[in-house]
Amino acid sequence: MENFYADSTIRKLISHNSLIEHIKKEANINISKIHGFFYAEKCPFCGAKLPAFRINEKEGNYVCYACGRGGNIFDFLMRYKNFTFTQSVDYLSHTLK
């Protein structure tokens, strides 16, 4: 069974959940601000030795220049916690309550 969510619901979840805070919490890493809205750290996916994992706070997305993984808060949860999109939406919805 497929679940479909209104665009407004997805936008609300993105705007009310900090990608940086979720990455810190889930991956248990400290993230360093490097410039403006940009943050860097070692990648929680590939374990690169250098801080190749970049997060753009303003845009709400991330990319690792070592392994190429990137995306938004939903992509992070789906990859890191092995969630489906529906599980990611449910998980983020519970953080709003």
Descriptive overview:
The protein has four helices and five strands, in the order ααβββββαα. It has a five-stranded antiparallel sheet with strand order 1-2-3-4-5, covered by helices on one side. α3 packs across α4. β4 and β5 form a beta hairpin. It has 97 residues and is of the alpha+beta class.
- Rg over CA atoms, rounded to whole Å, is 13 Å
Q: What is the helix tally?
A: 4
Query: How are the strands of the biggest sheet laid out side by side?
Result: 1-2-3-4-5
Q: What is the H/E order?
A: HHEEEEEHH
Measured distance between first and last alpha carbons:
25 Å
**Overall average pLDDT:** 90
Structural class: alpha+beta
Largest beta sheet, briefly? 5 strands, antiparallel
Unreliable residue runs: none
- What is the share of helical residues? 25-40%
Strand segment tally? 5
Proportion of beta-strand residues: 15-25%
Silhouette: globular
Topology:
Elements: H1 7-16, H2 19-27, E1 32-35, E2 38-41, E3 53-56, E4 61-64, E5 70-71, H3 73-80, H4 85-95
Antiparallel strand pairs: 1-2, 2-3, 3-4, 4-5
Helix pairs in contact: 3-4
In short:
This protein has helices at 7-16, 19-27, 73-80, 85-95, and strands at 32-35, 38-41, 53-56, 61-64, 70-71.
Which terms would index this structure?
alpha+beta; globular; five-stranded antiparallel sheet
